[in-house]
Amino acid sequence: MSEVDTYIMMTSLRARIDDYLYDPEPQHDAVLEDLNSDLRANRSKTLLRLSNELDKVIKEYNRIVNERIQDMEQFS
Length: 76
Fold this sequence. Notes:
The protein is mainly alpha-helical. The model has no long low-confidence stretch (mean pLDDT 89). Helix content is 78%, strand content 0%. Helix 2 crosses helix 3.
């Protein structure tokens, strides 16, 4: 698996969670429904925290890649 695959998985998961949390008619996702309905969890707070953390990680990775591109352009 490549880093591109990992990036796609992170952005896809964030999009699925956001769809589940914010779309009036979200796509069916049994895992997210199970996590959201588990009485021991804080319901959508768990999914919201996961979405927020994924967003932070994705932004950080984008920053790293952009810096790498700038460095490569500077030395070429």
